[in-house]
Every structure is written in C-alpha cells, then in structure tokens.
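Appendix B. One record, verbatim.
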Amino acid sequence: MGRRLRIGLTGGIASGKSTVARRFAELGVPVIDADEIARAVVEPGQPGLAEVLRRFGAGVLAPNGGLDRRALRELIFSDSSKRRDLERILHPLIRAEMERQAQAARGPYLVMAIPLLVESGLRDRVDRVLVVDAGEAAQVARLMARDGGSEEQARSILAAQASRTARLQAADDVLDNRGSEADLRLAVDALHQRFLGLATVAAH
C-alpha cells in the first residue's frame, strides 16, 4: 500500500459523490476518478476499445470511431454473462491506470473515487472507505430531478447497486448528505483535517 494514505470515496448514485470529490480537489488533495479512467481506457486508439470491439462486434462502434456507449449498455443490460465479459476486459485496465496515477500522486493522502467500490472488490486498494450517504428518499428525488425519469425508474437504478446497508457496513467514515451543499462542503473540510492527521501517523 505504500506510505501515502488512500481514501476510497463511494456512495450510491445521486448521493453527492461528485460534490465531495470536487471539494477534496479544491483543498489540494489528488483525486483519482474511476469513472473518468473507465471512459479513457476505451477512447479511440486505446487497447481497451480494440478488446471491446473484438468481443462485442462493430455494432458498438459509433460513427465517429469511438465507443457507442448506449449500444453497449443495451447489449450488456439484459445479459449478465456479457456484462461480466466487459468487466473482465475493463477492470484490469482501470485498476492499472488508477494504480499508476496513485503512485504518481503527491501530498500526504489521496482520494480514489470509485462508485462501485463495495461491489467491485477494490476494497483492498484503499486504507479507508468514505461513504457519502444521502438516504434513499433523497437519492430518488435527485435522480428524478436530474434524469427526468419516473420514481419507478429511479428506484430500479438504486436496486441495481449495492444496498445502502452494505455500503454503510463497509464504511470507515460516513458523510451525511441530507442537508445543504454548504453543510456537505464543511463536513469535507473537517474530514480533510482528520485525514491529514491520520496520514501523518501512517507515514511514521
């Protein structure tokens, strides 16, 4: 694990993870984002895209030469074996790039933002798990506002992720995001001080 403290940031969809990650970055903490890396490894010219095309065919290629994410989503959504195939291709590439960025990062500690941290078995990559928790009612409301979908759609998206209980059981630290964004940012600031202290201890 090395001497630099690694914080795994996770939480359900629409829980406020992006706001938390942004605030950590504003405080000068390196933030490594698994979603950004997942997009980067299938950019045109990347081996990840070639692997995906080999497995799923040219139907998932967009006219501009990039990945047609919607076509791929539709393909894997209804077939768990195809979804597992996609994970087998992408997860090692994502892990390797996250590790490369973690090794290059500077500062006492870093944040690894991994939406599916609890589901993906990446717990061993981090020293502490930080869960942003909004409560299901708030998540459903935010999802409906963000995507314009129905409550039923929002609840089905939530149901596909690890349960709130499973995430909270895996957490070392929890940020309660049922208040305002200003409250959340203040809570991040307080955690930042705590992590700096823990990082100092870990380095000695």
